[in-house]
Design goal:
- The complex is a heterodimer of chains A (73) and B (225).
- Chain A has 73 residues and is an all-alpha fold.
- Chain A has one helix and no strands.
- Chain B has 225 residues and is mainly α.
- Classes of the chains: A mainly alpha (73), B mainly alpha (225).
- At the A-B interface, helix 1 of A face helix 2, helix 3 and helix 7 of B.
Amino acid sequence: MHLISQTPLVAQLVSEAERLQHQYEYLSYGLTAAWIILVIYVLMMVARERKLKREIASLKAMLEDKPRTEPRP
Amino acid sequence: MREKILYVLGIVALAILAWNINAIARLPQEAQQGVTFKIIFFHVPVAITALTAAAVALLGSVLFLVTKNFKYDALAVAVTEVGLAFLAANLVTGSIWGREIWGVWWAWDARLTSALVCWLLYAGYLMLRRAIEEPTQRATFAAVFSIFAFIDVPIVIFSIKWWQNLQHPRPVFWAGGSFPPDWTRHFLWNMAAMLLLGIVMVAVRLRQEEAQREIDSLRRMAHVL
């Protein structure tokens, strides 16, 4: 008898827990999505930075080599 | 030295955000939307950062057209790109929030549509820059386009006042509501951290624009030799 009277309360608690879990899921999706977008952008910037540094180094090396390799008049 | 300061500022911004996530998780649930409402702590700061970036892009573009100084063009492209990333985060978090509260991922109401149009316009700005080779022409066309694109920003902001039958709710403060003090404190911390993160990203991006200009001048020198 005691157990039967408690059943709606248990059901209510279970449903509340499910609702909370569902909401936390969406909150985590939102935060994860925001972070993933910003992290992807930062990684793109890092890749671009490396490419620019490589390009500057190769151009400087080319300019240093060029006068030496040119034939003298 | 400048690089180190940027890294330190970036770490400070990330530390504030990490500490704040923990604090926000401990805040009580909102009465109607429950835990999901806490997306607001990211959704709104990224939006404000993105729209601030758009305003700075407008300023940079106008200053470039007036002075023809390429520093302002570099500023405009740097803030536009960073703002686009933040606006993308805003659109995605809004969509996830809408899925939980409205039951749909997207609604074609004035607020959401104008925000999407804003993202597309600034993406178009970056594509336009890639399409033009000559630097002066590229900067001039891009500046004019950026000024034109900014017209959408007030529409995004005031759409919730101008159109009544919107899916998107009016902001808490505009609707006469308020946050409890501890909510306001954490919201402002997140706001400051997102703005700081945006400033650091713009500074890094500006340095890359300087490097690109150096590459252009080195190429010209190589071509002359």
